[in-house]
């Protein structure tokens, strides 16, 4: 099966940044799905050394309603955006995406490995 990789742009939100939300830092993000490595997980690579892997179903659930598991939380933010929040020992990273980018990525992952497919 083939790897699904998609570039996206996201806003990194911090409580120390007092600029309006539309002026906060925009970063390139890599969304990745490797069904041969782990057909249940997706990965989000933030610039630098931040790489997060979590259940694909969590991303899907979080686009409709608040969802969380372990150190990752996902929720819709208005009608066109979604927030992914990552917790680790260094603190919290809050990343805001256009929902369309995440939906497009999920659709591509389901084409690679439909839900319920066993290996």
Low-confidence runs: none
| Helix/strand structural class | alpha+beta
Whole-number count of domains:
1
CATH architecture: Roll
Number of helices: 2
What would you give as the CATH superfamily? Answer: Sporulation-specific cell division protein SsgB
Strand order of the largest sheet: 4-3-2-1-8-7-6-5
User: Based on DSSP secondary structure assignment, what is the total number of beta strands?
Assistant: 8
* General form: globular
Major β-sheet annotation: 8 strands, antiparallel
Question: Rg, please?
Answer: 14 Å
Averaged pLDDT: 87
Residues in β-strands, percent: 35-45%
**Helicity, as a percent range:** 10-25%
Q: The CATH topology, please?
A: Transcriptional Co-activator pc4, Chain A
Q: Regarding CATH, which class?
A: Mainly Beta
- Please report the distance between the alpha carbons of the first and last residues: 11 Å
Brief sketch in words of this structure:
The protein has 119 residues and is an alpha+beta fold.
Give a quick set of tags describing it:
119 residues; alpha+beta; Transcriptional Co-activator pc4, Chain A; eight-stranded antiparallel β-sheet; 8 strands; 19% helix
Q: What secondary-structure arrangement, pairings included, does this model have?
A:
Blueprint lengths: L3 E10 L12 E8 L7 E5 L5 E5 H9 L2 E3 L2 E6 L3 E8 L2 E8 H14 L7
Antiparallel strand pairs: 1-2, 1-8, 2-3, 3-4, 5-6, 6-7, 7-8
Write up what this structure looks like.
The chain contains two helices and eight strands; from the N terminus they run ββββαββββα. The chain is α+β, with helices and mostly antiparallel strands. It has a single domain (4-112), classed as Transcriptional Co-activator pc4, Chain A (Roll). Strands 4-3-2-1-8-7-6-5 form an eight-stranded antiparallel sheet. The chain starts with a strand and ends in a 7-residue tail after the last helix.
């Amino acid at each position: 099966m083939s790897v699904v990789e998609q570039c996206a742009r996201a806003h990194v939100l911090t409580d120390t940044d007092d600029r309006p939300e539309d002026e906060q830092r925009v970063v390139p993000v890599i969304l990745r799905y490797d069904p041969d490595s782990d057909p249940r997980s997706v990965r989000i690579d933030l610039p630098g050394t931040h790489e997060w892997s979590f259940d694909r179903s969590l991303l899907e659930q979080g686009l409709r309603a608040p969802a969380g598991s372990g150190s990752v939380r996902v929720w819709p933010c208005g009608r066109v955006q979604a927030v992914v929040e990552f917790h680790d020992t260094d603190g919290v990273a809050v990343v805001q995406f256009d929902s369309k980018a995440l939906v497009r990525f999920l659709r591509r992952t389901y084409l690679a490995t439909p839900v319920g497919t066993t290996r």
